[in-house]
Amino acid sequence: MRFGLVGRSIVCLTGGMPSGGLSLTEFETALGLDRPLSQVATPPVLLADYTRVRLVAQGGQVQLEFKPNAGRDLIRRGAQEILRQVRMHGVQAVGFNVAFRIDTDDDDDLFSAVIRTEVIAQRLGVTTFRPGVKATYDSEHSVDTLSIDPDVADEEAWIGQMNRHHSRDPDQTATNSAIAWLAAASDEVEALLRRLLRPADD
């Protein structure tokens, strides 16, 4: 199994943020960014695309996407700054999201340790199929969702997402935990997947 991180993001829902509610100047200063590569500021939409991050705000939703070349320190500072600004308008929910890809070899049975694929195949009346998994569970500070689905364009690949959802504005302890997890997601999520999918006799 070969794991690759595709992207990370933080999504904030507010009770309604007015046009101009986000300061790009303060955002760029906090992250040490140059001016955006492209920018759209047509209320109620704000989009600013930088070399390492992309900021999108529309109505009551603000999303900060971190590109694969974003380092851990930039992710920490970006998440802290966007939360600081959004909290001025009231936070209803926050999600910390990770997208990833798993590549396997022809003879790999990715889910053999957690899914009885032969039983499912028999009951579906097929000889082969490509399974996926989805689980939602409570963690210490959030509700987490993990999903892994077959990549329809590549028979040896799966695409997945992991989300840490807070149904209200998280307190400082929960915020710090989620930001640290997001910054270290390349290690954290891979370790979780290897623990989840390892063969039972390992």
- Low-confidence parts lasting 5 or more residues at pLDDT below 50? none
Our estimate of the beta-strand percent is 35-45%
Number of helices: 5
What count of domains describes the coordinates?
A: 1
Quantity of strands, as a count: 9
How far apart are the termini? 15 Å
Average of the residue pLDDT scores: 90
Radius of gyration: 19 Å
Q: Helix and strand succession?
A: EHEEEEHEHEEEHH
The structure class reads alpha+beta
- Widest sheet, order of strands: 2-3-4-5-1-6-9-8-7
Largest sheet geometry: 9 strands, antiparallel
Q: How much helical structure, as a percent, in the residues?
A: 25-40%
Global shape: elongated
Summarize this structure as a short list of keywords or feature phrases.
5 helices; 9-stranded antiparallel sheet; 28% helix; 202 residues; alpha+beta
What can you tell me about this protein's structure?
The structure is a single chain. The chain is of the alpha+beta class and 202 residues long. It has one domain (2-197). It contains five helices and nine strands. Strands 2-3-4-5-1-6-9-8-7 form a nine-stranded antiparallel beta sheet. Strand 7 and strand 8 form a beta hairpin. Helix 1 (24-31) packs antiparallel against helix 2 (72-86) and helix 2 (72-86) packs antiparallel against helix 4 (172-183). The longest helix has 15 residues, at 72-86. The radius of gyration is 19 Å and the shape is elongated. It starts with a strand and ends in a 5-residue tail after the last helix.
Topology overview:
Layout: E1 2-14, H1 24-31, E2 38-42, E3 45-49, E4 53-58, E5 61-66, H2 72-86, E6 91-103, H3 117-124, E7 133-138, E8 143-150, E9 157-166, H4 172-183, H5 185-197
Antiparallel strand pairs: 1-5, 1-6, 2-3, 3-4, 4-5, 6-9, 7-8, 8-9
Helix pairs in contact: 1-2, 2-4
